[in-house]
Design goal:
With 650 residues, the chain is α+β, with helices and mostly antiparallel strands. Helices cover 32% and strands 11% of the residues.
Length: 650
């Protein structure tokens, strides 16, 4: 199948999101702006369609949007080098989320509306240029997908961008009216995604383009989310104000059943998609765009043009994939001794463009709860090993250092490739001897008798030293035996949707009362995922091949009756750190219950005593603020502007 090259084409919002034209750089005919008539040409329509895929890079892989998806949840908190963008998202007394201090919450608003308008332009002009129904369906998918992401984040949003509801707008408009949540779902999301399911092909026309099952996944998720919204079990407020009633007269149970039926239909009719054999193979660098990955923001090391960003230096913005930098601590501060007593510290773990390492920014850190609760089973479940970097190995020769060996813990020699620092999954029988400060390791790591590597038990992780997130980290094939380009943005695609999600959607709908099919109740569905998690193909901690099948043990450990809390824990094991946790906790209204406190040690090197940190999650936090730039750009009265903003953020 031909690989799709994503040109740098994207919608541009002038003044405010409603003043949308399309800026575009085509292969041989660069354009700084689309005039409306360009959408009446085949080139314009096809260029606009390509721009919808390219635009994904400005959201997925963007570190600040990534921050808004997991910081403040049970998965992550702010780390030692965090600025206000990250601290406010923690909701733990480090500042408040506001319409100006958004922590990345405005990313969807700023990027989705131009995409929506572009999609509407394609849909309206498709007939005039003879566009095939399957290509129109791609635009419908993107419009429905974009509105679905927006309504989950902000509540009701405008369907009219200036030319009428779901119409292509070409004229400047400085006023806006937000539709209600039910209107956005029933007028926009459901019709667009239903038509997309009908007209999209089973197999993508180019690698990574939308298919019938991609649309099915987001339609099923939309039905599931709307069902929860109708039920509103914890009385979370919505905005704009609306009755929790469906305009079409259907109840939550109907929507849960639809979510289940659509998800299981996709499982039974996978087309080119499916589950990878092991969790390790799913995330191993070099296995990108595999059969489990259904939608992604694409990147490549083959070309800066089609990567959408520099291959040598990432600025931390634009189309860069730099999300994983935030969860990467500054391992380059690790030191090994030039002398047997550990003195004369030398940098032994250098910044490298490898999946175990990557570029460190130390902005976000996992909570201790992740290691003690979410990943409690570290023996049978391969997902722990294939999620985190637990061992940091010496790589100094790649930086030109010809030293044969250095001295590690206990005055023992360490060689290139040896563990220099290891995080211990469980507390050892012999207590670790930690220094009172940075110590010889320079990062506050301790020692155990007979070990040459410095060690830190995960029970003592802090905001400054913690395991990295391996599965999302960089991967390059052009390092040529050296350190490569560790300062470049990550050239792997950032995954948005996986085939495995169908199992979780169907299981959640079943828990919510959907009538199930034989062999597909909630436990049976989740056990498909857990069985795969029990299969090992490589042991990263010990850096050896491991062909162990713990699938039966994993299935046996699954509760007979799965509840929402168990399902959410299982989702975190499967999708930890991928940037979507906030949506799951908000949908199920479990955010406060599961993330109102966490444990972690401080930002001081050598501190391995975790403390409990409490969060002040309020009901209004279940919606994000409308960006202040949108409010300021509208020509409306102050009262109208205040009413436009979500409550709690004025």
């Amino acid at each position: 199948m031909k690989r799709m090259n994503l040109k740098s084409i994207m919608g541009t919002a002038l003044l405010t999101l409603f003043l949308v034209a399309c800026s575009d750089i085509l292969d041989e005919q660069p354009r700084s702006i689309f005039e409306p008539g360009f959408f009446k040409t085949s080139q314009g329509v096809n260029g606009g369609l390509t721009s919808l895929y390219a635009n994904l890079r400005y959201i997925y892989g963007n570190a600040y949007y990534y921050n808004s998806g997991i910081t403040g949840t049970d998965e992550a908190t702010y780390a030692q080098s965090a600025d206000g963008n990250f601290k406010v998202m923690d909701i733990s007394g480090q500042g408040n989320i506001t319409s100006s201090a958004t922590g990345g919450t405005g990313t969807l608003w700023d990027n989705m509306f131009p995409a929506i308008n572009t999609a509407s332009g394609i849909i309206e002009n498709a007939t005039a240029v003879g566009l095939d129904a399957s290509l129109i369906a791609e635009a419908l998918f993107f419009r429905g997908f974009s509105y679905f992401m927006l309504v989950q984040t902000y509540g009701g949003v405008p369907l009219d961008l200036g030319a009428g509801e779901l119409k292509f707008n070409t004229a400047p408009v400085r006023t806006s009216v937000r539709n209600t949540v039910p209107e956005v779902y029933t007028k926009g999301i459901f019709p667009d995604l239903l038509q997309a399911v009908k007209d999209l092909p089973e197999t993508s026309r180019l690698t990574g383009t939308a298919t019938k099952n991609v649309a099915r996944l987001f339609l099923a998720k939309a039905y599931l989310t709307y069902g929860w919204w109708l039920q509103n079990p914890n009385n979370i407020p919505t905005y704009p104000a609306a009755d929790r009633k469906d305009p079409d007269g259907k109840d939550a149970s109907w929507y849960f059943q639809q979510a289940y039926d659509i998800a299981t239909t996709a499982i039974d009719n996978p087309g080119p998609y499916g589950l990878m054999d092991t969790f390790y193979e799913l995330h191993k660098g070099g296995n990108e765009r595999n059969k489990e990955m259904m939608l992604y923001a694409d990147h490549t090391e083959a070309s800066e043009k089609y990567n959408g960003a520099s291959l040598t230096y990432g600025s931390g913005g634009g189309a860069d994939n730099f999300a994983c930098w935030m969860m990467t601590w500054n391992y380059t501060e690790i030191r090994s001794g030039r002398n047997p007593d550990g003195s004369g510290g030398a940098a032994s773990v250098l910044r490298e463009a490898s999946q175990d390492l990557g570029r460190p920014w130390t902005r976000m850190a996992p909570t201790l709860n992740v290691f003690q609760n979410t990943f409690a089973d570290k023996e049978n479940d391969s997902r722990f090993d294939a999620t985190f970097t637990m061992v940091y190995r010496g790589n100094w020769p790649k930086g030109g250092d010809k030293t044969e060996f250095y001295y590690g813990a206990n005055g023992m020699k360490v060689y290139p490739g040896d563990p220099i620092l290891s995080f211990l999954p469980v507390d050892p029988p012999t207590p670790i001897t930690y220094p009172s400060g940075p110590g010889n390791s320079n990062v506050g790591a301790g020692t155990l008798p007979g070990r040459a590597d410095y060690v830190i038990a995960v029970s003592g992780l802090s905001r400054v030293v913690y395991p990295g997130t391996w599965k999302l980290s960089t991967y390059r094939t052009d390092n040529a035996g050296g350190l490569g380009q560790p300062n470049a943005g990550i050239t792997r695609p950032f995954n948005i949707a996986k085939f495995s999600e169908f199992y979780f959607v169907a299981a959640e709908a079943a828990i919510k009362g959907a009538t199930t099919k034989p062999g597909k109740n909630a436990r049976e569905l989740i056990n498909v995922i857990r069985a795969r998690a029990g299969k090992w193909s490589f042991d990263r901690y010990n850096n050896v091949v491991k062909t162990t099948d713990n699938s039966e043990a994993m299935k046996a450990a699954t509760p007979a009756n799965i509840d929402i809390n168990y399902l959410l824990a299982e989702m975190s094991r499967e999708y930890y750190g991928e940037g979507f946790r906030w949506f799951d906790l908000v949908r199920t209204q479990k955010w406060n219950e599961l993330a109102s406190s966490y444990k972690i040690a401080s930002s001081a090197k050598g501190d391995h005593t975790p403390v409990v940190v409490n969060r002040n999650i309020q009901p209004y936090h279940y919606l994000r603020p409308i960006p202040q730039g949108q409010i300021d750009g509208m020509e409306m009265t102050d009262d109208e502007k205040d009413a436009y903003q979500n409550p709690g953020y004025n």
